[in-house]
Amino acid sequence: MADNPMSQFQIKRYVELDVYGIDASFTNSSLFMVTAVIVVVGFLNVAMTSRSLVPTRLQSIAELSYEFIAGMLRDNVGKEGIKYLPLVFSLFMFILSCNMLGLLPYSFTVTSHIAVTFALAAFVITTVTVIGFLRHGLGYVKLFAPEGVPAVLLLLIVPIEIVSYLFRPISLSVRLFANMMAGHIMLKVFAGFIVSLGVYGFVPLVATVAFTALEVLVAFLQAFIFSVLTCIYLNDAVNMHEH
Amino acid sequence: MDSEAAKFIGAGMASFALIGAGLSIGNIFSSYLTGALRNPSAAPGQFTTLLIGFALAEATGLFGLLVALIMLFG
Questions:
Q1: Percent above pLDDT 90 for chain B
Q2: What is the 3-state secondary structure (H, E, C) of chain A?
Q3: Most Cβ neighbours (<10 Å): which of A94, A126, A229, B55?
């Protein structure tokens, strides 16, 4: 596994499972997704067992993360947005724990596969579109025609808006996947230099440690950006052009 | 030139998209710093906007990287 920096993304089947011709095997990817869910649910349960008025350290981490997402929804979507807290909060915690678990040596980064991130992004966009049509009916298509634009320009604006709307799931998923993948390839390439440089290997070793710190930042930032953009898309669906 | 070599050259050219991403990310953060040093009290309110701009600018470069990866490994 040492040489190729791409081998860390290899999917390994642990339990072969074939459901009517669809490969539904339990893979290392599934294992880390399950681990991420267990980590999040376990952490929140353990942290909130005491439920004291003066929070313990663990409880205040849980409250901080809740308040973080709630504040994000209030700022970007407004009062109506707090209804969608379960969606954004679970997205954020799941992506954050997947990214963080991927930073452990010899582990597998679930979010470095576009199949996973695109499924998340497609789910978000589908939900947002359904919410938009439920709230505004067919008037939701007015999202593609901003108010106050001259009729001649609409011929140009409407196709652009439609294309940009359709590109949302792609950019949302590619951003997360490419960031995680590029970061992990960079870490592995630099880690390879440690051995091949011999005595001078301490230089890439220091660089790898520094890059790992940077990757922790990126892991958090990408989870944050994914949820902020979800909030912005939700805002489009809930309030349309109102504010 | 055989197709294998052309593939590698194409992948290298596709990653030129990252030049734009690098320039734009640097531009966003430098503009933010310039603004923040002139009016530090308004800076925290724009931090989320900064990160959104960073993410949008980065995504366009990453499309190029994705094309390069598809050429190399797809």
A1: 41
A2: CCCCCCHHHCCCEEECCEECCEECCEEHHHHHHHHHHHHHHHHHHHHCCCCCCCCCHHHHHHHHHHHHHHHHHHHHCCHHHHHHHHHHHHHHHHHHHHHHHHCCCCCCCHHHCHHHHHHHHHHHHHHHHHHHHHHHHHHHHHHHCCCCCCHHHHHHHHHHHHHHHHHHHHHHHHHHHHHHHHHHHHHHHHHHHHHHCHHHHHHHHHHHHHHHHHHHHHHHHHHHHHHHHHHHHHHHHHHCCCC
A3: B55
